Amino acid sequence: MKYIVKVILFIALGFSVENTYAQLTVASYFNDHMILQRKKENKIWGHAKAKDWITVSIDGHTSKTRADKEGAWSTKLPSFPAGGHYSILIADKKDTLKIDDVLFGDVWLCSGQSNMEHAVISFPWGKEEMKKASNPNIRFIDIPNRIDEVPRNDLPKTIEWKTATGQNIRNLSAVSYWFAKNLQPKVGVPIGLITSAWSGTAIEPWMDIESLKPFPEYKEVLDYLQDDPKPHAQIEKEFQKYLKTEWGPRYYYKGIGMKEKWYEPSTDYSSWTPIKLPNWWQNAGVGLEHHDGVVWFRTTFDLPKNFNDSTYFIDLNLIKDYDIVWVNGVKLGETFGDQNWRHYWAPRSILKPKGNSLVVRVYNIGGYGGMNFSPLWATPILKGKWVCKKGLTIDPDTVPKPRIVNKSPYGYPTAIYNAMIHPLLNVSFTGAIWYQGESNAGRAQEYKAIFPAMIKCWRRVFNEGDFPFYFVQLANFTKEASKPVNDEWAELRESQEAALKLPNTGMAVAIDIGEADNIHPANKMEVGRRLALQALKKTYHQNVVAQSPSFKSMEIKGDSIIINIETYDDSLICTNKYGYVNGFAVAAKGQKFHWAKARLRGDQIIVHSDKVKKPVDVRYAWSENPGKLNIYNTNHLPLRPFRTDKRSGVTDGRTFGLDKVYF
Q1: Are 140 and 172 in contact (CB under 8 A)?
Q2: Tens digit of pLDDT for each residue in 316-337?
Q3: pLDDT tens-digit series, residues 546-563
Q4: How far is residue 25's CA from residue 48's CA, in Å, rounded to a whole number?
Q5: How far is Cα of residue 237 from the mean position of the Cα atoms in its chain?
Q6: How far is CA 470 from the centre of its chain?
Q7: Using an 8 Å Cβ cutoff, are 110 and 179 in contact?
Q8: Nearest alpha-carbon partner for 314 in 233, 386, 237, 381
Q9: Do 105 and 192 touch, CB atoms closer than 8 A?
């Protein structure tokens, strides 16, 4: 994108138009090499001088619009068939902007958590693929991670469209890339990818307030969000003023520890009390059962061998409620709020190879306080030897709690939707692909209702009707189960499949392509292929086998169960040469499950166990990792996991809560 009338140096440096002092701007989504949705009108918008007339032209089509009193303008580009390469001219009475190399094709929104976010370079095949990538008809734009308390309309000014060629794909979502690589040559139109994903996130942050209102477990959070809605920038500005002028000097930066500088390395820590983390100090058995106020924590750490970076990252996870951190007497920073993650960087200049002193002052107003976290998130420092000492004592009824930005992006409802989905609502697209669920596995039964609500939410807010929504069922992960058990991930997969009751949805089954020791399995090529098959069949109406075989019905014959499989007009193949099928378990009425022997016969599977004489229930691949599976259709799509029973599960009754973590 560049000026025609004015020559501006920032273009050569790659800055966006909105980074300048020019009055005429276009939203940062619109820049060179972009793909717009074919066969639909595409809204385009920006800012100009208030009340100025704006002319937008493309391929002989011109529209005029007028900026409102605040300078906002918008108009629509006419519908175009697939193709390009077009230029868009945007002009007011003084300046003209130009967007070059614009294609029309099909745009897909790609979202979810880490298995959608992880980039091409993250995987062993990444470097080689970057050498091969050469399809300029695949283009993409990444939405940076950010959250907010209220819906935002703007996107970051630094985003840009890129072609999926060479080094450009380095940071492109691997699943998105392989989805497009399998799709584009077969549909013959340009494919645009909007990647808006965030590692580790549950589903609730991706939803708006209205979609969560039917669920009572979110009422407290939603009431807070609607009581006095303010954007994060405003909340932070008001808090910093309050911290500096009143709350800090009057309440927060007080106490003997601050006065005596307990953060200094010269402090005598020999009398401090050992404490094992993670723990609330009230539950740690260190004499702080009824303490409100400040507790000081201290540990030491060594640098890794051959450490040569300019900074050393210290991840302290979640702390309740507020903290200040020092290393070797130097203040690294402070964080406010029990939902905000503690990420600190110590400059190399203050570090030594061994025995670095880390001091954390924790200030709590009422309730539990301290450094408590899931062992899953533990770091070597957090697992180290800590000592503590009581500091300032307060009355929680008299110390005010200031309003702060206090939201974890990983679970706080609406937080990501507001900043990473809502700004895209004016964008036209074909459909969405979604890979998420790991972070909701602890509440799998709840997900059965929340996931469809999320899909309906997006369809409502984008106003695109029941657009295609294709998702990935969780892959196998962790150590193979030694015996049949109830399992959170199996229940989550079942809840994911339940979303197929919604129209225009599809599921890519990944139960066979995970890795026991890697929650981010490398075979994103097959994930992308299976998602692309869903789109080819259901969106582009091509004659391909896209559906994984699924359970249809069962009948009991003596001591065996005969499973009828829905093959979707395809054939079943067992890769075992004797036709023995892995992954089955059976149970008698009210009894525990036992591994079973199974064999394929046409589109039926006969299941039997010597330990179960009167089987009534059967399960297949019902485990976080069911081991090596060996039944597919001819397009190498695996049989979906299933169960025939309705027994209580591990996650029954578990619901959302800001303080609830299920591991």
Answers
A1: yes
A2: 999 999 999 999 999 999 999 9
A3: 999 999 999 999 999 999
A4: 6
A5: 28
A6: 16
A7: yes
A8: 381
A9: yes
